[in-house]
Design a protein that fits this description.
Blueprint (H helix, E strand, L loop, with lengths): L4 H27 L6 H25 L7 E4 L2 E15 L2 E12 L3 E3 L1 H6 L8 H13 L2 H11 L6 H15 L3 H11 L8 E12 L5 H10 L10 E12 L5 E9 L6 H17 L4 E6 L3 H10 L4 E4 L1 H16 L4 H16 L3 H15 L4 H12 L6 H6 L7 H15 L8 H15 L3 H10 L6 E2 L18
Parallel strand pairs: 5-8, 8-9
Antiparallel strand pairs: 1-2, 1-10, 2-3, 3-4, 5-6, 6-7
Protein name: ISKra4 family transposase
Amino acid sequence: MQVCQPLAEAANFSCHAIQQLEQKLAVLRQEHSPIKHFEDYEGEIHKLFIEAEQSVLAEDLTGLDIDVPAIEVSGVCYHRVLRSSETYQSAVGPVRVLRTLYRNGKDHSIIPLELQAGIVEGYWTPKAAKQAVWMVAQMPPGEAKSLLDLIGNMTPSESSLARLPKKFNAQWEPNREAFEDFLWESVKVPEEAVTAAASLDGVMLPMKDGKRQEKREQNRVDGKRTRGPAGCQEASCGTLSFYDAQGERLSTVRMSRMPESKKVTLKQSLSALLSEALRQRPDLTLVKVADGAKDNWTYLANELPEGHEVVDFYHAAEHLKKAFDLSYGENSNKSREKFITYRHILKEEPEGVEKVIKALAYQHKRHPRRSKLKTELEYFRSNRTRMNYAEHLSHNLPIGSGVIEATCKTLVTQRMKCSGMRWRHPGGQGILTARSLIQSGMFDNGWKLLAVTYCAKVTKVGMDNVIPFPMQKGDLEL
């Protein structure tokens, strides 16, 4: 069987690399016979295989280079101006290759090797970039660098890792709506699901551009506290969860956005995801769960399809405790007794919220000057239609927002609120997007969508169509 010349050369090189690896391995085994320190020996073995992988990758990357007078990409003609060596960061460490640079005019340059290999940001091979994004989404760049050093494969600098979320975000956001449409269509509603629960919430995030000093100065002028999270703004989180007939949660899709007025983008994404889920399964019972924040319910009640509306029971219980503390004294025996009794009534008895309102109205009548007690009473009055907990429990519907509360902690707090951290939108959103994909089981699909944006078809231009390109000072072959 005849093999084409490029494939034959690649096969020969691979055989040569394997032969070299076998020779070095034989020498290493002889030097370490008998093996005294297996950890050191294991490290030397790993290093040999890494070097062999680097050699193969360098050869194959070089094979993707195009060295002709002119090429065409997306209908635009580019002319060859330079050949030079460049080092790329692969999943097994740095690989150095010779590649050709082309230019259209004085400013716009492209490198066919990078477009054909899908090199990310002119530095990372696709697999290396995918691994690095996953790591910095889960831990600070310094910790990621230490982990990579321990593993002994790729060797990016801490600064390269730190820049990656911002670069990821710059590539993702212009395509976000199209990417999300594809991802939402890939979300398969579990066959056992009978209920879908939509939730959203927010968590305060320290921001570099949060006007921290200005806010503290204004607080000082107003006679308010000048300490605390003055530079924080609210990041937003959303979830769509699916439950079976017994009320057991089957799966959850999570999403998060950096601070934005009225959570506009998050709401759009959550609405689109819910629409796709209901398109697949119109028979799903929709439950909308959140705390009592007005903005949340303006969206949940008015912009989502009709469904059961539930104020998170545990938030309601906190307000109930506060009301009885205001009535009988904070943490007094009488307050605790009343709280336990009426907490059970609120959760387990039909029309329990009406009994709670009646009890709190009586306490307000006894203490009319306690304005905070009236505030708690109004909380239950304004949310009474969303507190039919006994009815919802009888149908195995969720009454708590524990999923969205946990999402705020795991998506935002655990990664982005470590000591000394402050954020700007681009880098922060890159991390939140990657973490959302990871926690929703969509990271592989999301990365495939992103990786395509770094690739392009490169066509060699026929010699008869080449227009001479004037050499510029510095356009030399290195």
